[in-house]
Amino acid sequence: MVELKTPAEIDAMHTTGKFIAGLLDDLTGRADVGVNLLQLEQRARDLIAQRGAVSCYMDYAPSFGSGPFGNVICLSVNDAALHGLPHDYALRDGDLLTMDIAVSIDGWVADSARSVIVGTPGPSDQRLIRATETALAEGIAAARPGGHLGDISHAIGAVAKKFGYRVNGDFGGHGLGRTMHEDPHVANSGKRGRGMKLSPGLTLALEPWFCATTDRIRYDPDGWTLRSADGSRAAHSEHTIAVTESGPLVLTA
């Protein structure tokens, strides 16, 4: 069931989104050579506690995971594409780090992800991140009232094709609001004019993610971390948005 949000409810989600943006800014500034992933996890916990927010990941146990997640942020390094489980790992020069987090404030959720390069950037990694950011921007631009869900999916997929990356169909964006995952599913490729009509009040997390040379993924033994099947690097960008009468509004900018 798709729940359309009122302007007041969207404002409440925007409050959560601004907090998440600030948290990701803070962690981006701390993600340096020698910093341990567990330090970033702890910093995220501290900021969430200080704000009185609630983690959407802690004790999250969906069908695709292996038991409760047990952390407040996904930290995925290099070939890890999604759901990276924070662990004892010190970041190295040139690592590609993706940080993905969702929290609730006063009962309203926002979700965002950002990929960054630690230390010396590699051109291929910069291009991969730029592709996800461009796809996200195009997907957001397509989220206009009167359009269709397929318009967003097509816009994201067209960018992947332009950059020469393949799209995995197993994981994509989603609705959200009172909980982290609501209807509808938002695929990262699709056809214009297909799918549900976009109406004001619809809130979505759009999250293009691409692997450099494959669209296949595999699970780590931890049961959570998803890696590219061929070991190539992965990047992921995500914003929570609202469809409004005047067009898309980014809530996690």
- The overall strand count is 14
Q: Order of strands across the widest beta sheet?
A: 7-6-8-13-14
Cα distance, first to last residue? Answer: 27 Å
Q: How many alpha or pi helices?
A: 4
Mean pLDDT: 97
Bulk shape: globular
Note the run of SSEs as H and E. Answer: HHEEEEEHHEEEEEEEEE
What's the name of the CATH homologous superfamily? Creatinase/methionine aminopeptidase superfamily
Strand content: 15-25%
Estimate the helix proportion, in percent. Answer: 25-40%
Subunit structure: Monomer.
GO molecular function: initiator methionyl aminopeptidase activity; metal ion binding; metalloaminopeptidase activity
Domain Peptidase M24: 13-245
Family: Belongs to the peptidase M24A family. Methionine aminopeptidase type 1 subfamily.
Structure description:
- With about 250 residues, this protein is α+β, with helices and mostly antiparallel strands.
- It has a single domain (about 5-250), classed as Alpha-Beta Complex (Creatine Amidinohydrolase), CATH 3.90.230.10.
- About 30% of the residues lie in helices and about 25% in strands.
- It contains four helices and 14 strands.
- A five-stranded antiparallel sheet has the order 7-6-8-13-14. Strands 1, 2, 4 and 5 form a four-stranded antiparallel sheet that branches. It has a three-stranded antiparallel sheet with strand order 3-11-10, with no helix packed on it.
- A hairpin with a 2-residue loop joins β13 and β14.
- The longest helix has 24 residues, at about 5-30.
- The radius of gyration is 17 Å and the shape is globular.
- The two termini are about 25 Å apart.
- The model has no long low-confidence stretch (mean pLDDT about 95).
- One of its GO terms (molecular function) is metalloaminopeptidase activity.
- Monomer.
